[in-house]
Design goal:
four-stranded mixed sheet, 162 residues, 21% strand, alpha+beta, 4 helices, single chain
Length: 162
């Protein structure tokens, strides 16, 4: 009886080692795949704001944006996308968009105002010469894109109209 139990024990021990070896190889393989598939592209949601007082907002989702481009290049991409998309109402095509402002980052709190984040930290306004990485853009960052003059007028008198 001890000979049979010893053989089964060795057999099960061999199976256990084989299983552990396969799991280890799979983990290493998965890590290599993740490293190879990591790319510097991100998805950004842009809130196009035509009117603050009437709450005229349209979301524009930009996928596979290279995170090494500058803010100025991002603005150009957004404007080109607005002009080329047929599903955007002509109202948004006539607005002079000139300012980007952070709305929120992924998994962070959102502002109380439904139109725009009224916080006035300088880091909320990315500068045109910096790239997205320097401005701490992450995947699923949400931005507001609007006309600065309209924003300042609404900020001084935040009256909502219907």
């Amino acid at each position: 009886e001890t000979g049979i139990n010893a053989e089964y024990g060795e057999f099960f021990f061999f199976l256990l080692l084989l299983k552990l070896n396969i799991k280890t190889k799979n983990k290493i393989k998965n890590k290599k795949i993740r490293k190879m598939s990591t790319s510097p592209t991100i998805t950004i949601t842009v809130r196009l704001i035509k009117s603050f007082s009437y709450r005229t907002v349209r979301n524009l989702i930009l996928r596979d944006i290279n995170s090494t481009i500058t803010i100025l290049q991002l603005k150009q991409i957004i404007i080109e996308t607005i002009q080329s998309r047929s599903d955007l109402v002509n109202l948004f095509k006539t607005v002079q968009f000139d300012t980007l402002k952070f709305w929120t980052k992924a998994h962070f709190h959102k502002a109380n105002n439904l139109i725009i984040n009224f916080d006035e930290e300088p880091s909320f306004y990315p500068t045109d010469d910096k790239n997205l990485i320097e401005c701490e853009f992450e995947n699923e960052t949400e931005l507001s894109f609007f006309n600065r003059v309209d924003y300042e007028a609404f900020k001084s008198n935040p009256e909502l109209k219907w």
